[in-house]
Amino acid sequence: QKEVEQNSGPLSVPEGAIASLNCTYSDRGSQSFFWYRQYSGKSPELIMFIYSNGDKEDGRFTAQLNKASQYVSLLIRDSQPSDSATYLCAVNRNSGYALNFGKGTSLLVTP
Amino acid sequence: DVKVTQSSRYLVKRTGEKVFLECVQDMDHENMFWYRQDPGLGLRLIYFSYDVKMKEKGDIPEGYSVSREKKERFSLILESASTNQTSMYLCASSFTGSRAPLHFGNGTRLTVT
Questions:
Q1: pLDDT tens digits, residue range B5-49?
Q2: Which of A78, A111, B14, B110 is least crowded, fewest Cβ atoms below 10 Å from its Cβ?
Q3: pLDDT tens-digit profile of B34-93?
């Protein structure tokens, strides 16, 4: 099975800092990349998606994609305590429409 | 807003029972999925469906079956529940297309005793 790898963390950053979350994937045929946020006891919610190499910005969030290195990252600027959650990286499967998920990185933003 | 509704938030069943988990989406999505999520194992795909009456096995289909009689409804069936099926079950739906994100329901936390 194609894999999506993330550091489990926890990643701890002070309030106001930039949080950097990383993800690597093994399937070179993958075309679509998603970041989900999951609060404890809740279901994943989509926060960003990216399809092309480079950066994509949405408010305080920036997704970065490097297909040659098979690497996706999520930057959260001006981190807030409410950003404390587990962040899941997801990659489309080469066949079909399901997504493969990483195990998630736990982010803790300390006041 | 996409709404994916799972019928139960918490469920407690006994070993050997037949268990039905229901999921309904209101966005006319073609695709529906069932994942389970366990600590340390992440989200794993159980079954999925791209059309009514169509179903495909995911990565861990053993001990499960599914039913999709209507486009908006996708049911997960545990034929004979076992303790190792204690988990968080997440239903998701999406439009067709490799760029379509998945939208998740609130999840059903199933405990099998």
A1: 999 999 999 999 999 999 999 999 999 999 999 999 999 999 999
A2: A111
A3: 999 999 999 999 999 999 989 999 999 999 999 999 999 999 999 999 999 999 999 999
Query: Mind listing the pLDDT tens digit for each residue in A34-91?
Result: 999 999 999 999 999 999 999 999 999 999 999 999 999 999 999 999 999 999 999 9
Mutation target to probe the B interface, by most B beta carbons within 10 A, among A34, A46, A97, A100 is: A97
Quote the CA–CA distance of B13 and A81 in Å, as a whole number: 37
DSSP string, A2-63: --EE-----EEEETTSPEEEEEEES-TT---EEEEEE-TTS--EEEEEE-SSEEEEETTEEE
Supply the DSSP symbol for B41.
T
Put simply, the answer to whether A43 touches B104 (Cβ < 8 Å) is yes
